[in-house]
Structures are given as structure tokens and as C-alpha cells.
Amino acid sequence: MTHDYTIIRSDRRTLALEITDNSELIVRAPRRCPNSYIESFVDKHSHWIGTHMEKQRIRAESRICLTGEEQEALVLLAKEKIPPIVEHYADIMGLSPQGVRITKAEKRFGSCSGKNRLCFSYRLMQYPQEAIEYVVVHELAHIVHKNHGRDFYALIETTLPDYKKREALLKK
Q1: How far is CA 60 from CA 5, 47, 64, 103, 152, in A?
Q2: Assign residue 99 a region: left if phi > 0, alpha if psi is -120 to 50, beta otherwise?
Q3: What's residue 1's pLDDT?
């Protein structure tokens, strides 16, 4: 099966595949990587590409488009609801984030900066409380572990033993 794709070359060392929100395939490649090698790489990963293109199509169909008014209402709700959840779990975990912001991020639910500032997307307000709590604990854990290693998930599990079930709520 052949796939149409766009190649983006940069100073990277490895090849990577990306499927955009519009279900377009992007191949990120080192500057000097031969086109024949890229073609072979795409062919080799054809099954993965097909699977993820289908997932992206389903995701796009189920995406809820909000009006500006609805979005602003969710931002206000997030500003009201998320900081107390952060404070609660920060106390339990013995951590002190350097600030909490609500953003309009579309690609991620939360982030933790190198200076331990936490950001959360207003979109979390469309998920159950258990999922919101998971994202909060996940980002708080990044204050201690700046990666997704074994120790990072062990810290999350000590706070939320059912974190895998909570995480799954975000993927529905």
C-alpha cells in the first residue's frame, strides 16, 4: 500500500512519522537521508500508518466543535475547578508548583515547565472528575521527574492506585 506524504528535513538524526489532525502523513527526516531510504521506511511502517490514520479519522469525526462562548465558559469553569484540585494533590504529594494557568491548548491536557509551572487545557472540563485528577497528578509528578520513566509512574501510582483506569477516560 502506498501512502502520500510530505517530507520535512531538519538536523534530526532519525526518521519519524506524524499524522496530522487532517490525516496527512508527514515524514520527518535528517537533511541528508536518501529519498529511497525514506520510501522504504514508509513502506515498512505501512500497517502502523493505516492503523493510526483510521484512529485519526475516528478522532476527527468525534471531535466536538465549540462556539467561542462555550469555550470561554469552559475556561472560566477550569479556572474555578482546577486550582483547588492542584492544591489538594500538591498537599498530598508534598509538592509546590510555581503557578497554575488555564490555556486553550488543543494538543495536550497539561504541561509542567522546567520552572515547575503547571498549565492545564480548558478542554479537561469535558471529562469526568477522575480524569481531571489524573492529569493534575500527572503534571505534579513532573515536578519530581521530568520524564515518563518507571519512577514517574510509580509516584503517580502511590497517589492514584487506579491511574491507568483514569488515564483511559481521556482516550474515549
Answers
A1: 19, 20, 9, 21, 31
A2: left
A3: 59
pTM: 0.71
* pLDDT grade for 110, boundaries at 50, 70 and 90: very high
State which H helix or E strand residue 88 sits in: helix 68-93
The Cβ-side half-sphere exposure at 16, using a 13 Å CA radius, reads 12
CA distance 90 to 117: 13
Buried b (16+ CB within 10 A) or exposed e, 127-166: beebbbbbbbbbbbbbbebeeeeeebeebbeebbeebeeb
Domain with CATH 3.30.2010.10 in the chain: 68-169
Amino acid occupying residue 136: V
| Separation of alpha carbons 55 and 65, rounded Å | 18
The CATH number assigned to the domain with range 68-169 reads 3.30.2010.10
